[in-house]
Design a protein that fits this description.
Number of helices: 10
Largest sheet: 7 strands, mixed
Shape: globular
Number of strands: 11
Radius of gyration: 18 Å
Strand content: 15-25%
Strand order of the largest sheet: 5-4-1-6-10-7-11
Distance between the termini: 32 Å
Helix content: 25-40%
Amino acid sequence: MKILGVIPVRFHSTRFPGKALADVNGKSMVQRVYEQAVKASGLNKVVVATDHKNIFEHVKEFGGEVCMTSERHPSGTDRCREAYELMNGEKYDFVVNIQGDEPFIDPGQIEELVSGLDTEVQIATQAKLIEDQQRLADPNCVKVIFGLQGNAIYFSRTPIPYLRNYPGKDWYDQFGYHQHIGLYAYRSDILKELTELPVSSLEKAEGLEQLRWLENGFTIKVFATRYHADGIDTPQDLKNALSLYNT
């Protein structure tokens, strides 16, 4: 099986413009992500897909693979599709979307995801047990429930399921809630279909594009992981992350 890793990176982030080039202990954020991704066995190639010449030139300077994509893409999924189509006709069975704002991602996390892929999988992602009440209550921590076959049933910013016999403060102790970890693998033929779907009502309600896929009948396989690397959305996030990691 042939797998392409894509790191979609745009320059104009609302809360942290140019964060891909932010310094993370002597290297840019995008370089940190790239260097971690290329360590992952199972990926045949890793490429940064960007919309800005400064990022493009920077990746070239540190020796990374990079391609220039449109500024108009509404999501990383759309940028992944264009990156795949720019591979000069080179075919891949799956495209893995690696978040460009997770400089401390562990290669083992990517390896866990790709090791579970087969031709029956349309889309794959990961989930991790939530380890404290505060994260369970946080709407920025997306929750996921999945069936006995491991396919996602629903994603939400609120705790799911609702435990009707317990007050909310006791939910964490009474049920094993899972956080969605936003690393995706798309079967290459499915990726094209996903990017042609109109925005859905559930997606608008929760602000989660994966709900568009579920609404349209696609299956999302959810694999358990022990890894979790928080994304960097603001300068303060980066400051907090640097206080936790020594790289």
